[in-house]
Design brief:
The protein has 12 helices and 19 strands. α3 crosses α4 and α5 runs antiparallel to α6. It is globular. The structure holds 6-O-phosphoryl inosine monophosphate and magnesium ion. The site of magnesium ion has 6 residues, from loops. 6-O-phosphoryl inosine monophosphate binds next to α4 and β10.
Protein backbone atom coordinates (compact mmCIF):
# COMPACT_ATOMS: atom_id res chain seq x y z
CA UNK A 1 0.00 0.00 0.00
CA UNK A 2 1.28 3.41 -0.78
CA UNK A 3 -0.58 6.55 0.05
CA UNK A 4 0.47 9.84 1.52
CA UNK A 5 -1.48 12.70 2.99
CA UNK A 6 -0.36 16.27 2.43
CA UNK A 7 -1.82 18.62 5.02
CA UNK A 8 -1.19 22.14 6.17
CA UNK A 9 0.57 22.41 9.54
CA UNK A 10 -0.46 26.04 10.14
CA UNK A 11 -3.40 28.30 9.22
CA UNK A 12 -3.32 27.50 5.50
CA UNK A 13 -1.31 28.92 2.62
CA UNK A 14 1.68 26.76 3.48
CA UNK A 15 2.41 25.88 -0.13
CA UNK A 16 0.59 22.53 -0.20
CA UNK A 17 -0.29 23.03 -3.86
CA UNK A 18 3.30 23.35 -4.95
CA UNK A 19 4.33 20.30 -2.94
CA UNK A 20 1.39 18.21 -4.18
CA UNK A 21 2.06 19.20 -7.78
CA UNK A 22 5.75 18.36 -7.40
CA UNK A 23 5.05 14.91 -5.96
CA UNK A 24 2.24 14.24 -8.44
CA UNK A 25 4.71 13.24 -11.14
CA UNK A 26 5.39 10.10 -9.06
CA UNK A 27 1.71 9.54 -8.30
CA UNK A 28 -1.17 7.75 -9.98
CA UNK A 29 -3.91 9.63 -8.21
CA UNK A 30 -4.42 12.91 -6.34
CA UNK A 31 -7.55 13.11 -4.20
CA UNK A 32 -8.90 16.27 -2.54
CA UNK A 33 -10.73 15.34 0.65
CA UNK A 34 -12.22 18.50 2.15
CA UNK A 35 -12.75 22.23 1.75
CA UNK A 36 -13.90 23.93 -1.40
CA UNK A 37 -13.05 26.98 -3.42
CA UNK A 38 -11.88 28.73 -0.25
CA UNK A 39 -8.58 27.01 -1.07
CA UNK A 40 -6.12 28.78 -3.33
CA UNK A 41 -3.32 26.45 -4.39
CA UNK A 42 -0.71 28.22 -6.47
CA UNK A 43 1.23 25.89 -8.72
CA UNK A 44 4.02 26.64 -11.15
CA UNK A 45 2.98 25.25 -14.55
CA UNK A 46 5.71 25.68 -17.17
CA UNK A 47 7.07 28.73 -15.37
CA UNK A 48 3.71 30.41 -14.86
CA UNK A 49 1.69 30.55 -11.63
CA UNK A 50 -1.71 28.88 -11.90
CA UNK A 51 -4.14 28.98 -8.96
CA UNK A 52 -6.34 25.95 -8.33
CA UNK A 53 -9.33 26.27 -6.04
CA UNK A 54 -11.21 23.03 -6.53
CA UNK A 55 -9.17 21.08 -9.04
CA UNK A 56 -6.62 18.85 -7.32
CA UNK A 57 -3.09 20.22 -7.68
CA UNK A 58 -2.00 17.22 -9.78
CA UNK A 59 -4.28 18.17 -12.67
CA UNK A 60 -1.46 19.61 -14.78
CA UNK A 61 0.56 16.40 -14.55
CA UNK A 62 -0.11 13.92 -17.35
CA UNK A 63 -1.32 10.48 -16.45
CA UNK A 64 -2.53 11.39 -12.96
CA UNK A 65 -6.16 10.73 -12.10
CA UNK A 66 -7.51 13.66 -10.06
CA UNK A 67 -10.47 13.09 -7.79
CA UNK A 68 -12.70 15.42 -5.81
CA UNK A 69 -13.74 13.28 -2.87
CA UNK A 70 -17.10 13.19 -1.10
CA UNK A 71 -15.80 15.42 1.70
CA UNK A 72 -15.35 18.43 -0.57
CA UNK A 73 -17.99 21.10 -1.19
CA UNK A 74 -18.15 22.05 -4.86
CA UNK A 75 -19.38 25.30 -6.33
CA UNK A 76 -20.53 24.02 -9.75
CA UNK A 77 -20.36 27.39 -11.48
CA UNK A 78 -16.96 28.19 -10.01
CA UNK A 79 -15.67 24.77 -11.01
CA UNK A 80 -16.80 25.15 -14.64
CA UNK A 81 -15.08 28.54 -14.75
CA UNK A 82 -11.92 27.05 -13.24
CA UNK A 83 -11.90 24.21 -15.75
CA UNK A 84 -12.24 26.68 -18.64
CA UNK A 85 -9.45 28.85 -17.27
CA UNK A 86 -7.13 25.90 -16.77
CA UNK A 87 -7.89 24.49 -20.23
CA UNK A 88 -7.09 27.84 -21.84
CA UNK A 89 -3.58 27.32 -20.46
CA UNK A 90 -3.27 24.03 -22.25
CA UNK A 91 -4.00 21.81 -19.24
CA UNK A 92 -6.19 18.84 -20.01
CA UNK A 93 -9.31 18.32 -17.89
CA UNK A 94 -11.12 15.29 -19.27
CA UNK A 95 -11.04 11.66 -18.27
CA UNK A 96 -8.28 12.55 -15.80
CA UNK A 97 -10.82 14.27 -13.56
CA UNK A 98 -13.58 12.73 -11.43
CA UNK A 99 -16.00 14.24 -8.93
CA UNK A 100 -17.50 11.93 -6.36
CA UNK A 101 -21.30 11.86 -6.47
CA UNK A 102 -21.44 12.44 -2.71
CA UNK A 103 -19.64 15.79 -2.68
CA UNK A 104 -22.11 18.51 -1.75
CA UNK A 105 -22.73 21.60 -3.82
CA UNK A 106 -22.23 25.20 -2.83
CA UNK A 107 -25.19 27.19 -4.09
CA UNK A 108 -25.49 30.94 -4.70
CA UNK A 109 -27.69 31.19 -1.59
CA UNK A 110 -24.85 29.82 0.53
CA UNK A 111 -22.66 32.71 -0.51
CA UNK A 112 -25.48 35.22 -0.03
CA UNK A 113 -26.35 33.92 3.45
CA UNK A 114 -22.67 33.89 4.44
CA UNK A 115 -22.19 37.48 3.27
CA UNK A 116 -25.24 38.60 5.27
CA UNK A 117 -24.06 36.70 8.37
CA UNK A 118 -20.54 38.09 8.17
CA UNK A 119 -21.94 41.63 7.81
CA UNK A 120 -24.18 41.17 10.82
CA UNK A 121 -21.26 39.89 12.91
CA UNK A 122 -19.66 43.32 12.55
CA UNK A 123 -16.44 43.55 14.54
CA UNK A 124 -16.55 39.88 15.44
CA UNK A 125 -16.70 38.66 11.83
CA UNK A 126 -14.66 35.52 11.11
CA UNK A 127 -13.21 37.02 7.95
CA UNK A 128 -14.21 34.06 5.79
CA UNK A 129 -13.41 33.84 2.09
CA UNK A 130 -17.16 34.29 1.43
CA UNK A 131 -17.20 31.30 -0.86
CA UNK A 132 -20.21 29.83 0.93
CA UNK A 133 -18.19 27.08 2.60
CA UNK A 134 -19.67 27.27 6.12
CA UNK A 135 -23.31 27.43 5.00
CA UNK A 136 -22.80 24.57 2.51
CA UNK A 137 -21.34 22.27 5.17
CA UNK A 138 -24.03 23.38 7.65
CA UNK A 139 -26.73 22.39 5.15
CA UNK A 140 -25.08 19.03 4.65
CA UNK A 141 -25.23 18.38 8.38
CA UNK A 142 -28.77 19.68 8.73
CA UNK A 143 -29.78 17.47 5.79
CA UNK A 144 -30.70 20.35 3.61
CA UNK A 145 -27.79 19.84 1.23
CA UNK A 146 -27.52 18.93 -2.43
CA UNK A 147 -25.08 16.13 -3.31
CA UNK A 148 -23.59 16.81 -6.73
CA UNK A 149 -24.70 13.37 -7.93
CA UNK A 150 -28.22 14.81 -8.07
CA UNK A 151 -27.25 16.80 -11.17
CA UNK A 152 -27.59 13.54 -13.12
CA UNK A 153 -31.34 13.43 -12.34
CA UNK A 154 -32.05 17.05 -13.04
CA UNK A 155 -35.84 16.88 -12.55
CA UNK A 156 -35.57 15.66 -8.95
CA UNK A 157 -32.67 18.03 -8.32
CA UNK A 158 -34.63 21.03 -9.60
CA UNK A 159 -37.60 20.23 -7.39
CA UNK A 160 -35.44 19.98 -4.27
CA UNK A 161 -33.40 23.04 -5.22
CA UNK A 162 -36.51 25.18 -5.68
CA UNK A 163 -37.90 24.17 -2.29
CA UNK A 164 -34.64 24.86 -0.48
CA UNK A 165 -33.94 28.10 -2.34
CA UNK A 166 -37.40 29.40 -1.43
CA UNK A 167 -36.62 28.80 2.26
CA UNK A 168 -33.25 30.53 1.86
CA UNK A 169 -34.96 33.52 0.30
CA UNK A 170 -37.14 33.75 3.41
CA UNK A 171 -34.00 33.84 5.56
CA UNK A 172 -32.33 36.41 3.32
CA UNK A 173 -35.27 38.77 3.15
CA UNK A 174 -36.91 38.38 6.57
CA UNK A 175 -33.89 37.88 8.76
CA UNK A 176 -31.22 39.84 6.94
CA UNK A 177 -33.29 42.38 5.02
CA UNK A 178 -31.40 41.36 1.89
CA UNK A 179 -32.65 40.96 -1.67
CA UNK A 180 -34.12 37.56 -2.59
CA UNK A 181 -32.23 35.50 -5.16
CA UNK A 182 -33.71 34.77 -8.58
CA UNK A 183 -34.47 31.05 -8.32
CA UNK A 184 -35.19 30.59 -12.05
CA UNK A 185 -31.78 32.03 -12.86
CA UNK A 186 -30.12 29.62 -10.38
CA UNK A 187 -31.91 26.67 -12.01
CA UNK A 188 -30.77 27.79 -15.48
CA UNK A 189 -27.18 28.20 -14.32
CA UNK A 190 -27.25 24.77 -12.71
CA UNK A 191 -28.60 23.20 -15.89
CA UNK A 192 -25.61 24.58 -17.78
CA UNK A 193 -23.22 23.45 -15.06
CA UNK A 194 -24.81 19.98 -15.08
CA UNK A 195 -24.14 19.60 -18.82
CA UNK A 196 -20.48 20.21 -18.13
CA UNK A 197 -20.00 18.35 -14.85
CA UNK A 198 -22.15 15.21 -15.15
CA UNK A 199 -19.57 13.53 -17.43
CA UNK A 200 -17.06 13.78 -14.54
CA UNK A 201 -19.35 12.31 -11.87
CA UNK A 202 -18.34 8.95 -10.45
CA UNK A 203 -18.63 6.68 -7.46
CA UNK A 204 -15.05 7.06 -6.28
CA UNK A 205 -14.44 5.44 -2.83
CA UNK A 206 -14.03 1.90 -4.24
CA UNK A 207 -11.79 3.22 -6.96
CA UNK A 208 -9.49 5.02 -4.55
CA UNK A 209 -9.45 2.12 -2.08
CA UNK A 210 -8.54 -0.29 -4.87
CA UNK A 211 -5.78 2.02 -6.06
CA UNK A 212 -4.26 2.17 -2.56
CA UNK A 213 -4.68 -1.59 -2.02
CA UNK A 214 -2.98 -2.42 -5.32
CA UNK A 215 0.07 -0.33 -4.45
CA UNK A 216 -0.58 2.67 -6.69
CA UNK A 217 0.78 5.94 -5.37
CA UNK A 218 -2.14 7.98 -4.09
CA UNK A 219 -1.81 11.50 -2.69
CA UNK A 220 -4.55 12.83 -0.45
CA UNK A 221 -4.39 16.59 -0.87
CA UNK A 222 -5.58 18.70 2.03
CA UNK A 223 -6.72 22.29 1.86
CA UNK A 224 -6.39 24.97 4.57
CA UNK A 225 -4.34 23.94 7.59
CA UNK A 226 -4.65 21.88 10.76
CA UNK A 227 -5.06 25.02 12.90
CA UNK A 228 -8.21 25.84 10.88
CA UNK A 229 -9.77 22.41 11.59
CA UNK A 230 -13.40 22.62 12.72
CA UNK A 231 -12.75 20.36 15.73
CA UNK A 232 -9.13 21.12 16.61
CA UNK A 233 -8.51 24.61 15.27
CA UNK A 234 -8.86 27.98 16.93
CA UNK A 235 -12.67 27.85 17.01
CA UNK A 236 -14.67 29.86 15.95
CA UNK A 237 -11.88 31.27 13.78
CA UNK A 238 -11.67 28.12 11.70
CA UNK A 239 -13.05 26.75 8.47
CA UNK A 240 -15.99 24.36 8.39
CA UNK A 241 -14.22 21.11 7.55
CA UNK A 242 -11.77 18.58 8.96
CA UNK A 243 -8.55 20.01 7.59
CA UNK A 244 -6.42 17.65 9.66
CA UNK A 245 -5.28 14.28 8.31
CA UNK A 246 -8.25 12.67 10.06
CA UNK A 247 -10.42 14.22 7.34
CA UNK A 248 -9.15 11.72 4.78
CA UNK A 249 -11.42 8.87 5.91
CA UNK A 250 -14.79 10.65 5.84
CA UNK A 251 -13.64 12.79 2.93
CA UNK A 252 -12.72 9.96 0.59
CA UNK A 253 -14.16 6.70 1.89
CA UNK A 254 -10.66 5.32 2.43
CA UNK A 255 -10.48 3.96 6.01
CA UNK A 256 -7.79 5.16 8.46
CA UNK A 257 -6.10 1.75 8.32
CA UNK A 258 -5.30 2.33 4.63
CA UNK A 259 -3.83 5.79 5.01
CA UNK A 260 -0.06 5.92 4.87
CA UNK A 261 2.45 8.61 5.69
CA UNK A 262 1.31 12.07 6.71
CA UNK A 263 3.39 14.95 5.41
CA UNK A 264 2.86 18.29 7.10
CA UNK A 265 3.64 21.42 5.15
CA UNK A 266 4.70 24.48 7.15
CA UNK A 267 6.19 27.77 6.13
CA UNK A 268 9.54 28.78 7.64
CA UNK A 269 7.45 31.47 9.35
CA UNK A 270 3.66 31.60 9.72
CA UNK A 271 0.72 33.51 8.28
CA UNK A 272 -2.98 33.78 8.85
CA UNK A 273 -5.80 35.33 6.79
CA UNK A 274 -9.00 36.44 8.46
CA UNK A 275 -9.62 36.99 12.14
CA UNK A 276 -8.47 34.96 15.13
CA UNK A 277 -5.69 34.80 17.70
CA UNK A 278 -2.13 34.76 16.39
CA UNK A 279 0.54 34.86 19.13
CA UNK A 280 3.62 35.49 16.94
CA UNK A 281 2.00 38.08 14.69
CA UNK A 282 4.27 40.95 13.66
CA UNK A 283 1.95 43.89 13.01
CA UNK A 284 4.46 45.99 11.09
CA UNK A 285 8.17 46.29 10.32
CA UNK A 286 9.40 42.72 10.10
CA UNK A 287 5.87 41.51 9.33
CA UNK A 288 5.77 43.79 6.30
CA UNK A 289 9.18 42.57 5.17
CA UNK A 290 7.91 39.00 5.32
CA UNK A 291 4.73 39.98 3.46
CA UNK A 292 6.67 41.73 0.69
CA UNK A 293 9.31 39.07 0.30
CA UNK A 294 6.83 36.21 0.52
CA UNK A 295 4.14 37.90 -1.57
CA UNK A 296 1.76 37.14 1.25
CA UNK A 297 -1.55 38.08 -0.32
CA UNK A 298 -4.49 35.67 -0.43
CA UNK A 299 -4.68 33.54 -3.59
CA UNK A 300 -8.47 33.41 -3.27
CA UNK A 301 -9.40 36.83 -1.87
CA UNK A 302 -6.29 38.98 -2.47
CA UNK A 303 -6.30 40.04 1.20
CA UNK A 304 -2.91 40.83 2.75
CA UNK A 305 -1.96 37.95 5.01
CA UNK A 306 -1.00 38.53 8.64
CA UNK A 307 2.63 37.44 9.09
CA UNK A 308 4.71 36.30 12.06
CA UNK A 309 7.65 34.20 13.21
CA UNK A 310 7.51 30.43 13.25
CA UNK A 311 5.40 29.18 16.15
CA UNK A 312 6.72 25.85 17.43
CA UNK A 313 3.98 25.52 20.09
CA UNK A 314 1.31 25.67 17.38
CA UNK A 315 3.37 23.49 15.04
CA UNK A 316 3.82 20.73 17.64
CA UNK A 317 0.11 20.81 18.31
CA UNK A 318 -0.68 20.48 14.59
CA UNK A 319 1.85 17.65 14.28
CA UNK A 320 0.02 15.82 17.06
CA UNK A 321 -3.47 16.38 15.71
CA UNK A 322 -2.61 15.33 12.15
CA UNK A 323 -0.04 12.70 13.12
CA UNK A 324 2.56 14.24 10.84
CA UNK A 325 5.41 11.83 10.15
CA UNK A 326 7.59 14.33 8.34
CA UNK A 327 7.58 18.03 7.61
CA UNK A 328 8.21 20.02 4.47
CA UNK A 329 9.32 23.57 5.19
CA UNK A 330 8.37 26.07 2.49
CA UNK A 331 9.43 29.62 1.67
CA UNK A 332 12.74 29.31 3.49
CA UNK A 333 14.14 31.90 1.06
CA UNK A 334 11.78 34.55 2.46
CA UNK A 335 13.94 34.56 5.60
CA UNK A 336 17.14 35.22 3.57
CA UNK A 337 16.95 38.92 4.50
CA UNK A 338 16.98 38.67 8.28
CA UNK A 339 19.96 39.11 10.58
CA UNK A 340 18.38 37.10 13.36
CA UNK A 341 15.36 34.84 13.21
CA UNK A 342 13.26 34.38 16.34
CA UNK A 343 11.46 31.06 16.85
CA UNK A 344 8.60 30.90 19.33
CA UNK A 345 9.36 27.96 21.61
CA UNK A 346 6.87 28.58 24.42
CA UNK A 347 3.97 30.83 25.34
CA UNK A 348 3.53 32.97 28.39
CA UNK A 349 -0.11 32.97 29.43
CA UNK A 350 -1.18 35.09 32.40
CA UNK A 351 2.46 35.24 33.50
CA UNK A 352 3.03 31.49 33.36
CA UNK A 353 5.24 29.86 30.73
CA UNK A 354 3.83 26.84 28.95
CA UNK A 355 4.47 24.72 25.89
CA UNK A 356 0.80 23.74 25.67
CA UNK A 357 -1.29 25.11 22.79
CA UNK A 358 -4.55 26.32 24.35
CA UNK A 359 -7.69 24.74 22.93
CA UNK A 360 -9.62 27.92 23.58
CA UNK A 361 -9.25 30.88 21.23
CA UNK A 362 -9.89 33.19 24.19
CA UNK A 363 -6.94 31.74 26.08
CA UNK A 364 -4.78 31.69 22.95
CA UNK A 365 -5.43 35.39 22.45
CA UNK A 366 -3.71 35.99 25.82
CA UNK A 367 -0.62 33.98 24.83
CA UNK A 368 2.60 35.94 24.42
CA UNK A 369 5.43 34.31 22.50
CA UNK A 370 8.68 33.36 24.23
CA UNK A 371 11.39 33.46 21.59
CA UNK A 372 14.69 31.81 21.01
CA UNK A 373 16.87 33.61 18.46
CA UNK A 374 18.63 31.89 15.61
CA UNK A 375 21.33 33.62 13.54
CA UNK A 376 20.11 34.51 10.05
CA UNK A 377 22.16 33.67 6.95
CA UNK A 378 21.63 36.83 4.90
CA UNK A 379 22.38 35.06 1.65
CA UNK A 380 20.29 34.12 -1.35
CA UNK A 381 19.04 30.53 -1.03
CA UNK A 382 16.80 30.51 -4.10
CA UNK A 383 19.33 28.65 -6.24
CA UNK A 384 19.94 25.92 -3.64
CA UNK A 385 19.00 22.43 -4.80
CA UNK A 386 21.17 20.23 -2.57
CA UNK A 387 21.61 20.45 1.17
CA UNK A 388 25.24 21.62 0.85
CA UNK A 389 24.03 24.55 -1.29
CA UNK A 390 22.27 25.93 1.80
CA UNK A 391 24.17 28.27 4.16
CA UNK A 392 25.07 26.54 7.47
CA UNK A 393 22.75 28.92 9.37
CA UNK A 394 19.82 27.88 7.15
CA UNK A 395 20.60 24.21 7.77
CA UNK A 396 20.87 24.99 11.49
CA UNK A 397 17.44 26.61 11.37
CA UNK A 398 15.92 23.50 9.80
CA UNK A 399 17.76 21.22 12.26
CA UNK A 400 16.41 23.30 15.14
CA UNK A 401 12.86 22.83 13.83
CA UNK A 402 13.50 19.08 13.79
CA UNK A 403 14.88 19.14 17.35
CA UNK A 404 12.04 21.22 18.70
CA UNK A 405 9.31 19.16 17.04
CA UNK A 406 10.93 15.73 17.02
CA UNK A 407 9.86 15.35 13.39
CA UNK A 408 12.28 15.11 10.44
CA UNK A 409 12.23 17.70 7.68
CA UNK A 410 12.04 15.89 4.33
CA UNK A 411 12.45 18.92 2.08
CA UNK A 412 12.65 22.68 2.05
CA UNK A 413 11.24 24.89 -0.66
CA UNK A 414 13.23 27.98 -1.66
CA UNK A 415 11.11 29.72 -4.29
CA UNK A 416 7.91 29.58 -6.31
CA UNK A 417 9.40 27.62 -9.21
CA UNK A 418 8.51 23.94 -9.25
CA UNK A 419 12.16 22.86 -9.08
CA UNK A 420 13.09 25.30 -6.28
CA UNK A 421 13.24 22.53 -3.66
CA UNK A 422 16.02 21.06 -1.57
CA UNK A 423 15.07 17.48 -0.89
CA UNK A 424 16.73 15.72 2.05
CA UNK A 425 15.10 12.33 1.68
CA UNK A 426 12.97 10.35 -0.72
CA UNK A 427 9.27 11.13 -0.36
CA UNK A 428 7.17 9.27 -2.93
P1 LIG B 1 -5.52 27.09 1.37
O1 LIG B 1 -6.00 25.75 0.94
C1 LIG B 1 -5.74 30.37 4.20
C2 LIG B 1 -9.53 30.98 6.30
C3 LIG B 1 -10.28 32.27 6.03
C4 LIG B 1 -10.97 32.47 7.36
C5 LIG B 1 -11.34 31.05 7.77
C6 LIG B 1 -12.75 30.63 7.44
O2 LIG B 1 -5.15 28.02 0.27
O3 LIG B 1 -4.45 26.97 2.42
P2 LIG B 1 -13.91 29.96 5.14
O4 LIG B 1 -14.12 30.75 3.88
O5 LIG B 1 -13.11 28.72 4.93
O6 LIG B 1 -15.16 29.70 5.90
O7 LIG B 1 -13.03 30.95 6.08
O8 LIG B 1 -10.43 30.21 7.09
N1 LIG B 1 -9.21 30.19 5.11
C7 LIG B 1 -7.97 30.09 4.60
N2 LIG B 1 -6.81 30.72 4.93
N3 LIG B 1 -5.73 29.46 3.21
C8 LIG B 1 -6.85 28.80 2.89
O9 LIG B 1 -6.84 27.77 2.04
C9 LIG B 1 -8.05 29.15 3.56
N4 LIG B 1 -9.34 28.75 3.45
C10 LIG B 1 -10.01 29.39 4.42
O10 LIG B 1 -9.41 33.32 5.72
O11 LIG B 1 -10.08 32.97 8.31
MG1 LIG C 1 -5.00 30.12 0.54
Amino acid sequence: MSSIVIVGAQWGDEGKGKITNGLASNANMVVRFQGGSNAGHTVDVNGEPVVFHLLPSGISVQGVLCVIGPGVVVDPLGLVEEIDGVRSRGIEVGENFLIDVGAHMVMPYHRAVEAAEEESRGGSAIGTTRKGIGPAYSDRYSREGLPIGMLASFGEFEERLRAIAARKNEILTRLHGAEPLDIDAIVDDMRRAADRLVPHLADTPDLVREAVASGSNVIFEGAQGTLLDISFGTYPYVTSSHTSAAGVAPGTGVPPSMVGEVLGVAKAYITRVGAGPFPTELPDGEGETIRDRGQEYGATTGRPRRCGWLDIVALRYAIGVSGMDRLIITKLDVLDAFETIPICVRYRIDGVETDRFPRSAVELSRAEPVYEEMPGWQADTTAARRHDDLPPEAMAYLRRIEELTGVPVAAASVGAAAHAVVQFAEIL
